[in-house]
Amino acid sequence: MIVIKKVKELTSIVGEKKKAGLSIGLVPTMGYLHEGHLTLAKKAREENDVVIMSIFVNPLQFGPNEDFESYPRDFERDQKLAEEAGVDILFAPEPNEMYPKPSMIVMNVVERTDRLCGEKRPGHFDGVVTVVTKLFHLAQPNRAYFGLKDAQQVAVINGLVESLNFPLEVIGVETVREENGLAKSSRNVYLTPTERQLAPHIYQALKAGRALAEQGEKDAEKVINETIAHLNEHTGAEIDYVELLSFPELTPVQTIKGQVILATAVKYSNARLIDNIIFECE
Amino acid sequence: MIVIKKVKELTSIVGEKKKAGLSIGLVPTMGYLHEGHLTLAKKAREENDVVIMSIFVNPLQFGPNEDFESYPRDFERDQKLAEEAGVDILFAPEPNEMYPKPSMIVMNVVERTDRLCGEKRPGHFDGVVTVVTKLFHLAQPNRAYFGLKDAQQVAVINGLVESLNFPLEVIGVETVREENGLAKSSRNVYLTPTERQLAPHIYQALKAGRALAEQGEKDAEKVINETIAHLNEHTGAEIDYVELLSFPELTPVQTIKGQVILATAVKYSNARLIDNIIFECE
């Protein structure tokens, strides 16, 4: 595995790979890798000749009161894990390498962002699509891999690729969970021991909601209330939202039908966690 | 030469060409081809394995009171000229092929647009960068060719490519002129016979301004005034603007130094014409 910090080096090596007719899989991350990321890398490894992983904590997608500075970083460990997962090229630029001067182009996402996390994080997805656009141009992937834990991000990036005709396939990969059901997240390290014991109930609450729907309940509000009740009873966290939306369009549904997402965000003392289930109803 | 109307067909053939390691030159146009466009195509022919020309009158870059509907079109003639110029693939989509639904992504150009034509055409360059981004993703060119007659467009597209790391080279090609100096333009057909006789003085006026600067005049205002005087005396047109800016940054200069652009737009009865000279001063 080679580690690259400079844009010019990356574009030069990517140019060679493309010229040789090799397929490229890209796994964009913010580092502090966990099994979720590594699952993306392994899938990319299976499906492409060359695997590029980027590690870049993108300042543009953090709000002024968010955790950009304190976002966990451990580059040495990441390097080892990426290599073990079969990554060929690890691209880890500094912010001034990605943004050497103010961008002449501002990108705004005008759909799929006014709910779930997007509602509470104005500008977040504008920052996401900007950095993802840059990474797509730099790495020129045939396939790009994103975890479905951030399902809204997958929905937005699908929209980006479709709207602007990027020549690549977006692959949303199933959320990786601990045995107890807790979704893997870089932010889990900020949970207290007690919170860690309670947090698996986030997923249990989503499953309780889904179970109700699968038993035939069509009223979205009842499914949401079931989920909220379970979260309140078992997780010891403050609920940020529970929403039930069509997927990937992310429009609210009253009567459950077709592919939907049941998603939640909850707050613990030092961490805000998100999780979701995507399922199909007749 | 093959003619393609559908996005899917284009991406499929472009995919084959890329896989075969061939280089691609793209010439984006709005059709009604003249020698300016054909010069771009010929240059692309010399420098690339495959030449793609697009013909697309992009509704997104026309304002509500502009000439989208009446913009001249002659596809049969264009087809013949493109083939003669060595184009391999002529991509001529309908608007609903390029914009099948409202875009989820809005792109805004936040520099280099608040003067010259950009000042009078709010949103124009937002529409330009959106369609150019889409065309770049569809045609995946190694090189893209634009005429320097619309120097502001070249400056904006250079900024687009730099800001978002597009993997391609933007090539600005010298303005093609009639023997009398009039810059070739699709809109020249709208000039009356008398206006056509006077219009070559637009270029003469720019040359008069440049001559003054080359004689040592450093005061931008005096050079602008010389140009205005010549325009007023000889062209019989209404002056929209005469500006002297740094190039490609397009910031106003008081004292002429370095690479600058002297640019003008004038209005005749049925056509607004633009022209410019880019030159270097010590």
From TrEMBL, chains A, B:
UniProt cross-references to InterPro entries, sorted A to Z: Cyt_trans-like, Pantoate_ligase, Pantoate_ligase_C, Rossmann-like_a/b/a_fold
Binding residues for (R)-pantoate: Q61, Q153
GO molecular function: pantoate-beta-alanine ligase activity
Subcellular localization(s) per the UniProt record: Cytoplasm
UniProt keyword annotation of Calcium present: no
Keyword terms of this UniProt record: ATP-binding, Cytoplasm, Ligase, Nucleotide-binding, Pantothenate biosynthesis
EC code: 6.3.2.1
Gene3D superfamilies tied to this protein: HUPs, Pantoate-beta-alanine ligase, C-terminal domain
Residues passing through the membrane, by range: none
Chain sites annotated for binding ATP: 30-37, 147-150, 176, 184-187
Catalytic activity: (R)-pantoate + beta-alanine + ATP = (R)-pantothenate + AMP + diphosphate + H(+)
Domain of life the protein comes from: Bacteria
Chief subcellular location: cytoplasm
Phosphoprotein as UniProt keyword: no
Family: Belongs to the pantothenate synthetase family.
Function as written in the Swiss-Prot or TrEMBL entry: Catalyzes the condensation of pantoate with beta-alanine in an ATP-dependent reaction via a pantoyl-adenylate intermediate.
Quaternary organization: Homodimer.
Protein name, per record: Pantothenate synthetase
Species this protein is from: Bacillus kandeliae
